Amino acid sequence: MPIVAITGARIFDGERWHEHSAILVRDETIAGIAPVADVPADATFRKVDGGMLVPGFIDAQVNGGGGVLLADAPTAQSMDRIAAAHRAFGTCRLLPTLVTTTAEAVRAAMAAVRHAGPGVAGLHLEGPHLSPARRGIHDGTAMRRMTDADLDMLLSAEVDRLLITVAAEQVEPAQVRRLVDGGVIVSLGHTDATYDQAMALIDAGAGGVTHLFNAMSPLQARAPGLVGAALDAGPVWAGIIADGLHVAPATLKIALRAKRPPGRLFLVTDAMPTVGADVTSFALAGRTIDRRGNRLTWSDESGAPVLAGAHLDMAAAVRFCVERLELPVDEALRMASLYPARFLRLDAEHGRIAPGYAADLVHLSSDLAVLQTWVAAAKPRR
């Protein structure tokens, strides 16, 4: 196959910047980065108009997009439509996310994801093993403890990347260990876990925390909770919703300074069907969710508004990190690509622009608006 050389912009490879260079692509795989003067004479040039070329964004938590909510129709077609909606905002790989639902819907989603297109990297099951005390928009009546039958179903899923969010109230450390040993990525969320309970599950192999600060036990003076465990446990990853609505900018700044080693906080959108669609309301778990600006809410029993997912795309989250959290552009880009790739164990093929990696690329303007997105075809399953 001939080489395609993409030029005309600064290149960020996931670690450092390249000037006056070209990304070399062969058969939808990165062949390298080379100075323009060194590009092979027989290459086909594609020149973009300034800005920057960066690794494709990766989103571990996407409930919907393009007017589609995965929970309404857990099919491959729904997943592909969601992926297409988010592709316009730089997301090249995502995990469609199924909120708390029936076992039948979970099985349908696990079967469907095997037939979804290249933008779908796996499946995120956010429930049903969550705590009703921290249910958020989820259906608390459908939440329950994990059983041996649940374990067997999850471990036999044959999903390339299966991420499951669980609460300490609904699982045992031995169950988490079995899941992790079977290749499932376990994240903690929607829980009132104490610090000790959270650490017991982390010691058992839980490697992530779902939307840090939201729907979980907070950090308090004498009760560190799940937030404290997430910030204290070095190897643990945590997704953050960077929209200024779910978590205050000052709180996110504190978390970024507190988390050690750095680079373990990554961006998620927790996006709903409104992203990439002219939708102002939709139904979830029997409730009507309304969009006002970028805020999605439903009214609880008292009539008070409750946040219900996010009207957020990954490019907007990157801009928020730069403009409101005052992060360097390269670190914000890593939070949208390299770090989630590492968390999801996709980093051997995604999250960087390097030889052998999938040619997932985003062309951004100088103000971080998405101009074009390339998504490489999926390689055959191994």
Characterization of the model:
With 382 residues, the protein is of the alpha/beta class. It folds into 2 domains: 4-54 and 350-374, Urease, subunit C, domain 1, CATH 2.30.40.10; 55-343, Alpha-Beta Barrel (TIM Barrel), CATH 3.20.20. It has 10 helices and 23 strands. The chain has an 8-stranded parallel β-sheet. It has a 5-stranded mixed β-sheet with strand order 3-2-7-22-23, with no helix packed on it. Helix 8 (314-323) packs antiparallel against helix 9.
Record field, number of beta strands: 23
CATH superfamily of the largest domain: Metal-dependent hydrolases
CATH topology (fold) name of the largest domain? TIM Barrel
CATH class of the largest domain: Alpha Beta
From the alpha carbons, calculate the radius of gyration and give it in angstroms: 20 Å
Distance between the first and last residues' Cα: 23 Å
Q: For the report, how would you describe the main beta sheet?
A: 8 strands, parallel
Helix percentage range: 10-25%
Label the overall shape.
Answer: globular
